[in-house]
Amino acid sequence: MKHETGRWTRRGFMAAGGAAATVLLTRAGARADAEDAATALKLPTADGVYVQAPLPYDPAALEPHIDAATMALHHGKHHAAYVKGLNAALETQPSLRSRPLPALLADLDSVPEAIRTAVRNHGGGHYNHALFWKLMKPGGGGAPTGRLAEAIARDLGGFEAMRKAFSDAAKGQFGSGWAWLVAGAGGKLMIGSTPNQDNPLMAGAGALRGAPVLALDVWEHAYYLKYQNRRVDYIEAWWNVVDWSFAGRLYEAV
Ligand code: MN
After folding, report:
1. Looking at the chain, which terminus has fewer C-beta neighbours within 10 angstroms, N or C?
2. What is the pLDDT of residues 88-97, one digit of tens each?
3. 221: CA distance to ligand 1 center in Å?
4. Cα of 61 to ligand 1 centre, how many Å?
């Protein structure tokens, strides 16, 4: 549907020309992008069983900032284990398979107690990693643009202040966890961190609850091979691979 809209708009633009049609094209394009972002994390399943998508780039593509061995292990072993753990949990409660994973994570109280912790940890792990891979790209970095940049200026004092606050959240997360840029009520941006595989979709995120816009994995498995204990160096390097275009689309989808 969204592609048809885009095609129709482009035809309209070519026929009508002029500034008004340009605005129409820009708006329709942004809306289509937002729809793409919103659907990007409809995590693939086969017969109701979650299937891990391949990395969207070569494991070596983020070198030298994130090394190929880390990426291969992180995606092929750690993320894969969360997918396996989530499927094992849902095998005992097949009725839950009809509910999208974000909906389960947002309402863990509705998940039977016997598998609640498994869904929280492995389901959170699957969702967080699927998001993380898409928020990076070779040749990334730089700064956000468009509505996300405007919101960062409005709510967080601009890009440099946001970057520092996000890095501080990532450095300050004691032990394993994630740093987040989150869009809360009314699209207001917030920064914080969560332990383990928790995320801002979960009620337990408290004031940080909302829609993830940017996510950084600060588990040691995300950086130990290359950076050993130097989490700070990993965080600084990671800014060079951020896909701001995808983050911007996540924000526009809110
Ligand atoms: Mn990880």
Report:
1. N
2. 999 999 999 9
3. 6
4. 18
